[in-house]
Task: inverse folding
């Protein structure tokens, strides 16, 4: 995952927070590609997408 030398979970969280902010501002990217280096990183990313989506649903985004 990108975002410098952050741990996998922190890197995924930073990327998703930026993406969700863009969605809130109605400025979604036209194309987005997520590349992970391992099954572990894919699992973390998927888990955080679900967690952050649920949190947004609970607050009405």
Result:
């Amino acid at each position: 995952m990108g975002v410098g030398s952050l741990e996998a979970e922190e890197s995924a969280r930073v990327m998703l927070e930026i993406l969700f902010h863009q969605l809130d501002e109605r400025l979604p990217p036209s194309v987005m590609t997520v590349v992970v280096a391992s099954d572990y990183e894919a699992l973390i990313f998927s888990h955080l997408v679900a967690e952050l989506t649920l949190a947004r649903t609970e607050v009405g985004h």
About this structure: The helical segments are 8-24, 39-58. The chain has one domain: 8-58. The chain has a mean pLDDT of 83. The chain has two helices and no strands.
